[in-house]
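C-alpha cells in:
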C-alpha cells in the first residue's frame, strides 16, 4: 500500500459505536484513499488516528477507490461489531513514528 518510503501502514482496532472521525475526499474526481480531516477530542481513537491519515482498508477490505461517503456508510454499518480494523497510511515524519509502529508488531 504505501507508495513512499516515508509512509507507514498503521492498523487501528476500533470499538463498537461512533468513532468521532471524519474522512473526506481531497481531490475531485476522486483519486486515492479518503483522508482523515477531523479527529474529535472525545473520539475513542483520538490517540491512535491523526488528521492526514489515509484510510485504505476496513476489516481488510480495500476502500482506496471508495468515496468518503461510502467508506463512512461501510464503517457505520459495522458500528455494532465488537471490533473494526481500520488500516491507514501515515506519513512518517519522525523517528518517534517509526519506534511507535515497530513496538506495535
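Residues out:
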Amino acid at each position: 500500500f504505501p507508495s513512499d518510503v516515508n509512509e507507514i501502514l498503521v492498523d487501528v482496532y476500533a470499538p463498537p459505536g461512533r468513532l468521532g472521525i471524519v474522512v473526506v475526499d481531497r481531490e475531485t474526481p476522486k483519486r486515492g484513499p479518503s483522508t482523515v480531516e477531523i479527529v474529535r477530542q472525545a473520539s475513542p481513537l483520538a490517540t491512535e488516528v491523526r488528521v492526514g491519515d489515509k484510510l485504505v482498508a476496513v476489516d481488510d477490505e480495500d476502500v482506496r477507490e471508495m468515496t468518503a461517503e461510502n467508506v463512512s456508510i461501510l464503517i457505520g454499518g459495522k458500528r455494532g461489531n465488537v471490533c473494526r480494523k481500520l488500516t491507514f497510511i501515515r506519513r512518517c515524519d519522525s523517528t518517534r513514528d517509526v519506534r511507535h509502529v515497530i513496538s506495535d508488531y
